[in-house]
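Q: Okay, next protein. This is CDP-alcohol phosphatidyltransferase from Maribacter luteus. I've checked the sequence twice, so it should be correct. Can you predict the 3D structure?
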Amino acid sequence: MSKLPKADQFLDLSDYGRPIAMTIAKIFKNTAVTPIHLTIAFFISGIIALICILEHEYVASFFLLITKSILDAADGELARIKNTPSYVGRYFDSIADFVLNFMLIFTIGHLEEIHWIYMLSAFIGLELQGTLYNYYYVILRNKYKGDTTSRIFEITAPVAMKGEKQTWVNFFFNTYLLLYGVFDKIVYWLDPKAPYSEKWPKWFMTAISTFGLGFQLLVIGLFLVLGWIRFVIPFFIGYSVLIFVFILVRKAINR
């Protein structure tokens, strides 16, 4: 099941794992496995990938990062196919991504003996890229009545859905806000009029999907396999320049 109606779907370059994710969701549809179980599985996959990087097992780390991306898509697919949307699952997924991204960048920086300022710059760039992509994607999903578990503005804790406790929703929401709040505010400050945009060309969404986490992990994995690990951090620092380019293009389209 897609996050968007079929007529409004675009080629999402960060979502290459969706076909396999859908198969995994179908396998677990009538089982006791929950979306959160799959979120835990992708977190474990990411941790093992980090261990492989530290051991210089880059081919293994590449496949584990791809596995992580697939499972990251599968948890949402399972929630949709079981019709069990969850704010706890939505925030837990994002929190797990944040922790893994931080550990991934700093693991690579540690191996290459890169100054922590550059590691932090790459991490901030990585998160801002993903935040801009998610910002635009959530706006699009709300506009065309797609999946609405994610909200354009995460300001207050949402009301718990059926089957989850408000206490846990509040806890995961506040944790999410602590980690992502500053990135959300920066992106909104850079492009506050985006929610009022009428035009969202598919080619534009495809281009900005290169900011999606799946594509980011694919790039990191390929750099590792090709022996370009020293270029990972400089790449994400430099690629962040496109944040301003995409915002200017979005504004030009809706002028």
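A: Here is a summary of the prediction. The two ends are 33 Å apart (CA to CA). The chain has one domain: 6-253.
Q: Noted. On to the next one.
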